[in-house]
Amino acid sequence: MRIIAILFSFFIYQHVVAKIRLPALISDRMVLQREVDLKLWGWADRGEKVTIRFQGKVYHTQPDTAGKWSVSLAPQQAGGPFIMEINELVIRDILIGDVWLASGQSNMETPILRLVERYPEINVSNNHMIRYYKVPTQEAVDEKEEIASGAQWYSATASDVINWTALAYFYAEEAYRHTGVPVGMLVVSKGGSNIQSWVNQAHLKEFPALTVNKDALAVLENAAVDQGVNKWYHADWDDREWKTVTVPNRWNETGLDVKGTVWYRKDFDLPPNMGGKHARLYLGTLVDRDSVFVNGIFVGATSYFYPPRKYDIPAGILKSGKNNITIRLTADSHDGGFISDKPYRMSNDEINVDLTGEWKYKVGQDLKFLEQAKKQLPNLVSMGSRLYNGMIYPLRDYEVKGVIWYQGESNAGDANYGKYLKALVSNWRTTFQKVELPFLLVQLPNYAPKSVKPPVESGWARVREAQLQTVLEVPKTALTVTYDLGEWNDIHPLNKKDLAYRLFLQARRLVYGEQLVSEGPLYKNMKIDGNKIVLFFHPSAGGLKSREHRLKHFAIAGQDKAYVWADAVIHDNTVIVSSNDVPNPVAVRYAWGDNPEEANLQNKAGLLASPFRTDNW
């Protein structure tokens, strides 16, 4: 009880002194996006004036009725470190540069510690101009205002770099080396997550199994909260509309059909000589759990049914004239209440106040509504959007340069992956209010034992195809091909350095506007020429060549849809495919399989062609 009282006092103290509160991201060593209007936000007590001082300018604002404030800062040029003052708070070591949101599943959060033997330079990293923040995992059935706490910004000095994830580090190094601009990597990922958990409910409407009944969800959210918390214990709370009941009583004896929490309030008068004196409360036995307040001050709690309730009222709480006692009573069944034939009084050496008789009461939480709402939400656990709600939505006001998306392993073979991916891009562009927010997609690498048989159905190949198709159809997106960077026996390949190089090559073209070849040959169309199929590629392919003397991993099929390995040769900007076993070919597949590691069609810049097929089987 003493510990509870101390904690309660601490929370009250924190509420008094913590007038300004900031999101976890807005903290020491953060990176802010350059050359755009910047939004800062936070929370403050009602009526509190908020003053921000940054880069020689002063900004003023104040919180709205919900306690939230925000202010827009003028665009900033790259540089730093800087400091920012927000009232009494000082944020230090701020950089202005490019912020990248890196998201996905476990390959996005592979810890850099796994790579130090392969890349020993990590241990002596000394780059203070690149920064990293890993958003803690938080799943939610509704959109959260804040990310979970517990994280911080790290630089890439030797003492900090081990806190990074691998791809974020190598990408930031590559970006900084090329641009000379500070880089912030905002990593928002969860191992094993599927893509639909990263898409909001509005963009999953065509998938009923992934959406929830919003009306039932609203009821659930309301029923899950005790309406009286932080309110009804105040001494001056207006309880005139509350119902009355005679104490002692049990809920099921008085017709109160509740399973949950009921608040009780009773006013009593004390003579002048009792003001400020110590007293003791005797509250018989309560079913099941109680918290007790006198004149708005917490005086005690008991967490289960059996003990008699005896709570000290410390000197200074009671006052002459009107006083109030409030009890928050919670029971797991319908028989909560006050046990009869027990003492209910407040007393000391001078006075005895009988607390039986008429009390005011109001239901704070009725769990039966919670149970009813849950029955209408059978897919509450399997619904989509949970990671979006808890980890992406709270970041919506933080400006970013672009998005890196590395995910798909958990959706291998999912026929809807392409739809999900397009929905995610649209969703996040809406959330961050950038219609052309750049997306750099990582195509799934090679994985699993190599097959000596011609192409068969492959879940990984289907996801790669969906990733390619998304880039072909959605503007301001780019795809990085990686089927030579994987490991057949490890779903988390270690070569994140070459992957980062290829990713930033795409960023140089898509985001920074450089004129360069950043991707491999892209299949365009085909024609049948007797017993051969001629494949055409987009002119931007940068020329065709083989990594080895002979092209590999092409397969060809006839009307029977039975693929066999084929011969393939480059002729100008085409590839001619044939097989003596297929005299009348109709379709070709290239690099189609879980592990097409030997596929070797590339351009003269050394960038591999994306896997493709000409059929729609």
Keywords:
617 residues, alpha+beta, Jelly Rolls, 3 domains, 11-stranded mixed sheet, disordered N terminus, Galactose-bd-like_sf
Topology:
Blueprint: H1 2-17, E1 20-21, E2 31-33, E3 38-44, E4 50-54, E5 57-61, E6 68-73, E7 79-86, E8 89-104, E9 126-134, E10 154-157, H2 166-179, E11 183-189, H3 214-223, E12 243-247, E13 260-270, E14 279-283, E15 286-287, E16 289-294, E17 297-302, E18 310-313, E19 321-330, E20 337-338, E21 344-347, E22 352-354, E23 357-366, H4 367-375, H5 386-392, E24 402-406, H6 417-431, E25 439-442, H7 459-473, E26 477-480, H8 496-510, E27 523-529, E28 532-537, E29 545-546, E30 554-557, E31 564-565, E32 567-571, E33 574-578, E34 587-590, E35 601-602, E36 612-613
Parallel strand pairs: 2-8, 8-11, 8-24, 9-11, 24-25, 25-26
Antiparallel strand pairs: 1-3, 3-6, 4-5, 4-7, 7-8, 9-10, 12-23, 13-19, 13-23, 14-18, 14-21, 15-20, 16-17, 16-19, 21-22, 27-28, 28-33, 29-35, 30-31, 30-34, 32-33, 34-36
Helix pairs in contact: 2-8, 3-4, 6-7
